[in-house]
Design goal:
The complex is a heterodimer of chains A (about 375) and B (about 300). Helices cover about 35% and strands about 25% of the residues of chain A. Chain A has about 375 residues and is an alpha+beta fold. In chain A, helix 5 runs antiparallel to helix 6. The two termini of chain A are about 15 Å apart. By secondary structure, chain B is of the alpha/beta class. Chain B has a 12-stranded mixed β-sheet. In chain B, helix 1 links the parallel strand 3 and strand 4. Chain B is globular and about 60 Å long. Classes of the chains: A alpha+beta (about 375), B alpha/beta (about 300). Chains A and B meet through loops of A and loops of B.
Chain lengths: ~375, ~300
């Protein structure tokens, strides 16, 4: 079995996938970097053979790859609005500014252009097996579009508000649609980047976010932080929301999460080849359950024990149904909120690169091993 | 810091049933606690707590219920609890067997504890003098007035900031059967106004001759409280002294260690405080006398900011 990974060399995801290949006695994959494709240093034809498995992986933490995506995005027209853009000249300096939220919309436009380029090149390659399809990755990287797509396929998703462009607009929308607590997320952010939990009772306001604000003369710089910050001052919250809205936001109802061990939790469910597999609960003392904020996690058995088999099975069925809406792709990591009372559950996110779950096993297999096993069957089919 | 326990599934020993409009006949009403609340799904509807309660109170079997839970009654700051108190009190004859009451079962995923607007609950206490078990969550605007509860055994007041008037009411209350008293005193930022002198009646707890469990929790004046209560005569008859979730440092811990009275209790709860590892070791020595001490979740004196466990 020959594998091609489009990703970043020395990235943890690529390394772990290589390990998984080696464990199953498959040869190491060829790794092609994003910049090499974008700068047309190579053509995928040179690597993809007949029957090759092609895995499109996240660019990970590679500065070079993210730089290339932002550059590519700089030249892309935006069909839906005027969101924050950064010129190619100032990019290098900005990327050095650690944790800074730069221009996620532009990054997304770059990713989309890149994936279309990959698609074009793959069309010129010998017949091969693609793990996840560029169309699906593009869709999953747009939280607004992905939500609407799932909703149109009768997948249980939270209520949303039309996208806001300012704090005033958000307040007006919340009032109009009677939503007192919302999650405001960057439409193209991953993990907890740029996620804000906001609530008001008409008098008081509170926003909780893993975002740090730095005021400069006439604008606000945003930084991702590991420290959860609470904002109680409405002027400050307005600043923060206004700054986030420059990047296109997705606003959904903040559904009260069910609790486990006196903590709020949500689930990350990996669906591989149509079947819900690896599942973990992420426990948290605050509204942000994303793992990199050092929250605790509980494994699948604990989740079943806590929810009961019936509810657990229903959730898994919802996840499989959601993944079935993406028939061209093998896997995704789905984030599921179980509402307080456990009677309802909602898919809040689909992550095309959501299969990096360390120390997590399903039927004795890591996510990557299971994916490889499934692909091997397709290869022989 | 928020506190994330979910809604209780069991209240005062009774399994909790979330009452829904279609439950016009209560099944096994003597065996369950019933919760009437607005949920997040009512945010965008015109449902009101009062309308829901009116339907609930006309359900068959409601006369037999032993336990009642008042959940969220609104999500806007202008929805007052006064009309809730009024209507429940007015229907006291419909719940003659009520033994347990929860006012404000609202979890932080619904509303921050410091945003819960309580009010004067004395009409409720007067309407249900036979209550044995009472829990109140939220301290803003909370008042009890004169308390005379001949059967009350268990009282827990959860808040991010408890007004001193409430502490004074409890200190002067008639509570001949009281077994367990837990007060989350909170922080001044969220309305805590209790001073040490307000706790004077709790030194002896004369008004609670049967008290076995005293909880003075979640306080930003926890060091002072620890020093004050360390020598209290009430310790002679307590099973548990609960000083958890506060900001006790080595000063408060030392006061506890030095007091010969402390070993009179069977269990000392110091969970989530800020006692240093060295002092924790000294505390642990007390366990040789048979006392058990919960010292989990202590972050040490050097923790840059000391916070009570529940504020926001």
């Amino acid at each position: 079995m020959h594998t091609v990974i489009i990703g970043s060399l020395d990235d943890v995801r690529v390394n772990l996938f290589q390990e998984a290949l080696s464990e199953q006695n498959y040869p190491a994959a060829d790794v092609i970097s994003y910049p090499d494709i974008i700068k047309e240093k190579i053509h995928l034809k040179q690597f993809v053979r007949e029957g090759s498995i092609v895995r499109i992986e996240s660019s990970g933490k590679s500065l070079e790859a993210n730089h290339a995506l932002l550059c590519l995005g700089a030249n892309q027209a935006d069909e839906i609005g005027n969101y924050a853009r950064i010129s190619q000249d100032s990019l290098a300096e900005l990327l050095e500014d650690k944790g800074r939220i730069i221009a996620p919309r532009q990054w997304y436009l770059g990713l989309r252009a890149f994936l279309r380029l990959v698609q074009e090149q793959l069309a010129e390659c010998s017949p091969h097996h693609l793990m996840n399809h560029p169309d699906d990755i593009i869709l999953m990287f747009d939280k607004c579009l992905c939500h609407d797509y799932l909703q149109s396929h009768q997948v249980s998703v939270p209520r949303t508000l039309p996208t806001s462009h300012s704090f005033d607009e958000l307040e007006a929308q919340m009032k109009k649609y009677r939503m007192h607590r919302v999650f405001l997320k960057l439409a193209h952010g991953s993990s907890a980047s740029g996620v804000l939990a906001y609530q008001t009772n008409g008098l008081q306001h509170r926003a909780i976010a893993a975002i740090e604000m730095l005021h400069e003369e006439n604008h606000v710089k945003l930084y991702n932080t590991r420290r959860i910050k609470t904002y109680n001052n409405s002027a400050e919250i307005a600043n923060l929301v206004d700054a986030l809205c420059q990047h296109r936001v997705h606003v959904e109802q903040w559904i009260p999460k069910a609790s486990m061990e006196n903590k709020a939790f949500d689930l990350r469910v990996l669906v591989i080849d149509g079947k819900a597999a690896h599942t973990i609960a992420r426990l948290s003392n605050h509204p942000m359950t994303n793992l990199h904020l050092l929250n605790e996690r509980r494994h699948r058995d604990k989740v079943i024990e806590h929810l009961g088999k019936n509810i657990f099975d229903e959730i898994m069925a919802t996840c499989e149904h959601a993944m079935n809406c993406f028939p061209k792709s093998l896997y995704a990591g789905l984030d599921v909120v179980v509402a307080s009372g456990q009677k309802q559950h909602y898919i809040i996110e689909m992550n095309a690169f959501g299969d990096l779950l360390k120390d997590t096993f399903y039927k004795g297999k890591t996510p990557y091993s299971l994916e490889i096993q499934r692909m091997a069957q397709y290869e022989h089919a | 810091m928020a506190y994330y326990s979910g809604h209780p599934t069991n209240f005062a020993g009774y399994p909790v049933v979330e009452w829904e409009t279609e439950m016009t006949v209560l099944e096994n009403p003597t065996k369950n606690a019933y919760a009437v609340r607005l949920t997040w799904q009512d945010y965008d509807t015109d449902a009101t707590w009062l309308e829901r309660f009116k339907s609930f109170i006309s359900a068959e079997g409601v006369e037999q219920i032993p336990a009642f839970i008042i959940g969220a009654w609104g999500f806007e700051s202008d929805v007052s609890i006064d009309s809730v108190v009024e209507i429940v009190a007015a229907h006291r004859h419909k719940m003659p067997n009520l033994k347990a009451l929860y006012v404000g079962d609202i979890v932080s995923e619904e509303n921050e504890i410091s945003w819960i607007e309580q009010g004067d609950l004395s009409p409720l206490l007067n309407a249900f003098p036979n209550l044995e078990y009472l829990v109140v969550r939220g301290g803003n605007g909370l008042r009890f007035g004169t308390v005379d509860m001949p059967k009350l055994k268990y009282l827990r007041l959860e808040s991010g900031g408890l007004p001193r008037q409430v502490v004074q009411s409890i200190g002067q209350a008639k509570l001949p059967e009281m077994d367990t008293l837990i007060m989350w005193l909170g922080t001044s930022h969220y309305g805590a106004t209790t001073r040490i002198e307000d706790l004077q009646p709790f030194y002896e707890c004369k008004n609670m001759p049967k008290l076995k469990y005293l909880g003075l929790c979640d306080s930003e004046i926890a060091d002072e409280i620890a020093s004050f209560i360390a020598t209290a005569s009430v310790l002679e008859r307590l099973d548990t002294l609960d000083l958890s979730m506060g900001v006790i440092g080595d000063e408060g811990a030392l006061a506890l260690i030095k007091s010969p009275m402390i070993t009179k209790v069977k269990h000392l709860n110091l969970h989530h405080n800020f006692i240093s590892p060295e002092m924790l070791e000294k505390l642990k020595e007390l366990e040789k006398t048979g006392l058990t001490i919960d010292v989990s979740g202590n972050e040490g004196e050097e923790a840059r900011w000391r916070f009570v466990a529940v504020g926001e």
